[in-house]
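User: Watch each token:
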Amino acid sequence: MAGKIRLEDRECPLSTALGYVGEWWTMLILHDCFDGYSRFDQFQENIGLSSSMLTSRLRALVGQGLLEKRQYQSNPPRHEYVLTEMGRSLRPVLVAMAAWSNSRLEPSERAMILVDIQTGEEVEPVLVDRASGRRVDDQAHAFTAGPAASPVMRDRYLARSGQRAAASAP
């Protein structure tokens, strides 16, 4: 059934994350914040979003705890939007998304690159397991049901792991 939300979608961390940043405008606002922008007029100029849409997105980001609204001027009242710790923790996600997009382009086609601020050299970020230091973007790692998973989520991953075991059997 189209549009039906499954239980495992509601508890999936990917679904949860998309609930915070699923709209591309949201990602662009956060990107601006990471670049040091914090004021409504700056976001509007950089992104080109209508006032009402930008107001709505900023309100949502504040409500979700990703941004904090701070008054910087009292007469007339003016506010800025500053990343919270939760908002700052999304930086690796944006870096990974930009790196993924850039990896599909020739170096001369890249409009934005990530560089080491000390050397100016372009960097290529990878996701690694903190414990082993191994990359986690290969087939040696897989998602599975966690301790808080519902029976539906557990069944989903048990069925998949059974398929994987059958496929690897001689």
